[in-house]
């Protein structure tokens, strides 16, 4: 165009500096990693009964699950009702006010859920909740 000859067939290569774009990608990657929310799960699927108006439960907590077969799980490991105290007592020794959340399947026996609740109290739980679905 200006000062260029259209018939000039030079072998010049156009070089695009991509270092600033790579920097932007790394900054975005760091942003998304830092802003990711990690949710602790119990490791088993529990069908909770539906209840309207339930409050949201705290994120930093001890999660116990009671399945429809009345098995008790902590962190994906089957611990049974008798294993509740042994698993959560050391955690409550570190953080005494950490809530214990019991996720009871809607087909689980009420007695087993209450036994887990009692074991959590024996372990020293000051805050304990029974998790429900808010559909």
TrEMBL record:
Signal peptide region: none
GO molecular function, one term: transmembrane transporter activity
Gene Ontology terms describing biological process: protein transport
Taxonomy, superkingdom: Bacteria
Transmembrane domains' residue ranges: 20-39
Subcellular location: Cell membrane
Homology family: Belongs to the ExbD/TolR family.
Name used for this protein in its record: Biopolymer transporter ExbD
Native source organism of the sequence: Luteolibacter pohnpeiensis
């Amino acid at each position: 165009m200006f000062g260029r000859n259209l018939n000039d067939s030079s072998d010049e290569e156009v070089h695009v500096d991509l270092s600033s774009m790579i920097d932007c990608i790394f900054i975005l990657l760091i942003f998304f990693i830092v802003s990711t929310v990690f949710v602790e799960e119990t490791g088993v699927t529990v069908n909770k009964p539906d209840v309207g108006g339930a409050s949201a439960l705290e994120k930093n907590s001890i999660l116990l699950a009671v399945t429809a077969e009345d098995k008790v799980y902590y962190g994906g490991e089957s611990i049974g009702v008798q294993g509740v105290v042994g698993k959560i007592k050391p955690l409550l020794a570190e953080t005494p006010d950490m809530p214990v959340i019991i996720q009871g399947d809607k087909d689980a026996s009420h007695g087993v859920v209450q036994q887990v609740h009692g074991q959590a109290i024996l372990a020293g739980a000051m805050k304990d909740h029974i998790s429900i679905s808010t559909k």
